[in-house]
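User: ok so my PI wants both of these folded by tonight, can you help

Assistant: No problem, let's get them done. Here's the first:
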Amino acid sequence: MKQTRAIVITGNGTNCETEAAHACRLGGFDEAKIAHIAEILSGEVRLDDYHFLNLTGGFLDGDDLGSAKAQANRLKNASVSGSGEKLVEQFTRFINNGKLVLGVCNGFQLMVKMGMLPALDGNTLTQTVTLCHNDAGRFQDRWCYLKADPASPCVFTKGIEKGIYLPIRHGEGKFLTDTDQTLERLESGHLTVLKYSEADYAEPTMEFPANPNGSTNAIAGLCDPTGRLMGLMPHPEAFVHYTQHPRWTREQLPEAGDGLILYKNAADFVRENLL
């Protein structure tokens, strides 16, 4: 029987790879490999052998050129040793083969700066949106309510009726688009899949601290038109079991944390479409 295979890229400042791999396994993947970027650049590990790519949180290259900018330049221009191809060609082939990519926090920043999101018109190499410094002017570490768009094509949020509750921890999470037209296309296409809200998930909010960064239209998560590529600033891998909830000793909670559904949906998609 063919196995569902997830890969989590680490190196150059990521710090959530172990949690992401655990979330993949808990969500139903048969394998969740943590691979250093050097293993991929050397040709020892190839993205072609996997179904689900995880780009995790952290502080890539210390965010010295802005969040994930150095890594974005590296991945778009680096060559794979002994193969005669650029690493970005593996990324493009991975996407074109109908596979899944999830970028969380620094991974979301990486995806938008590579141009992998929002990938309007199928263009995964041209940047049209960004994530910049929080309006508060400081790092934010708190839990947030996220209103889901049930009309979104997003594979990962399928089945979320109202919203989910997840932690955020970032200094550069404010979502911006290059033009009003880009924003309109994102909204009309239901690609702005998660938005910061109050606890009732009724409406998106621009009020701090429920909206911790001042994101345009309260956007916290984004997908591409196919629904197979998703990025979000909150951390789903950090809430896959009820004991990770900040009030788990005081509230009766289901065993699965709110973030686990993203990984379960990914595993289900792979089994149904890629094996």
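One down. Here's the second:
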Amino acid sequence: MGIIKRKLDLTAIIITSNEEKNINKCIKSINRFVKDIFVLDSFSNDKTQQILKKLKIRFKCKNFISFPDQFNSAIKLSNAKTTWLMRIDADEIVEKKFFIKLKKFLKNAKPNTKGVIINRKYYFNEIEINHGGVFPHETLRIWRKGYGKCNSDLMDEKIVTKPIQEKINISIIDNNSNDFVRWKKKHKNYAYLEAKNFIKKIKNLKIKNSSDYKKFKIYYKFPIIIRPLLLFFYRFFFKLGFLDGLNGLKFCYWQTLWFRMLVDLNILKLKIK
């Protein structure tokens, strides 16, 4: 294992809302390796802000409107002085080997490289999920200052940059420490946002040629109630979710069948309105 003597010329950006169970381990996983960390908090009413103060992390507060708005505001308010920026969620952590590989990559990055695509590992019940179409999950999380912003998707929002983007085989780890009651509550809200996002997309003719829309079109042409079942069987059997054992079954049920059922119910409600 290599040694990092100097911190990476990188600012980590995090948005938070009542993340007292996650934010400490998130920041401790990156604090030794990056030059700066900035957090934009949505006026948390738990101990999130106290933890940030104790760790001496720069943060500001802003009322939450949407994930894209909050993250783009965080980029602006961070007033980053570093060459590179990185998005990390409050329930994610990064291992030392991630930064060792990233430091070498950034040192040799071409001047026209604007974004860096990495992998995202997912844990459920604190057990790694390796199948079911979850990993590898490529995501652009690192970008050159001044060249990245969050797109307008209400759910599963992404950082977008101008070309050129390069890939590196390193992984950020999603390992949420909240209990299952909080997980369900968050995903009920996500289901509503996903439904709103879908209706927004089908009304926006500009995106009908995008790869995202084509995936939506295939999925949503199946009847309501049937399509979540089909997606569950696709992920659990065809994408080998069963290889993750009982936890894989639970993950595919809650993350696919249960969640997608909620999305469909919200779509019906929004269409009625």
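The CA atoms of residues 110 and 164 lie 9 Å apart. The chain has a mean pLDDT of 91. Good luck tonight!
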